[in-house]
Amino acid sequence: MLMALLGVYFLVVTPLVDFYAERQSDLENRRMLLPRLKIAAQELPGLRAKVSELRSAVGTRKVTLDGSSDAVAAANLQSRIEELAASVAR
Fold first, then answer.
1. DSSP structural state of residue 61
2. Exposure winner among 65, 72, 77, 87, fewest CB in 10 A?
3. What is the pLDDT of residue 82?
4. pLDDT tens digits for range 33-90
């Protein structure tokens, strides 16, 4: 009889205790994560506005090199650097 009770304990009770312990740990992790998620949700509209602002600023600036080929674009870049260096040296 004792062996049967031990068998039931190890086959039924122990897995249930482990399952509940895992669920408790998962709930604690979620409780710790909740305040961080709330803060992130509050910051989201401001971050979206900043992204829009940065995208519009990038849209007005020239970020590519002109030229029909890589060699022409490199020559244009070199000319631009020389102009900038000359203006700083004055």
1. S
2. 87
3. 92
4. 999 999 999 999 999 999 999 888 776 666 677 778 888 989 988 998 999 898 887 6
Instruction: Check pLDDT > 70 for residue 14.
Output: yes
Helix (H, G, I), strand (E, B) or coil at 68: coil
76 close to 84: Cβ distance less than 8 angstroms: no
Domain that holds residue 73: 2-89
CB-CB contact of 66 with 73 (8 Å): yes
Helix and strand tally (H, E) in the chain? 3, 0
What tokens appear for 46 in the block? 């401001």
On whether the CB atoms of residues 65 and 76 are closer than 8 A, the answer is: yes
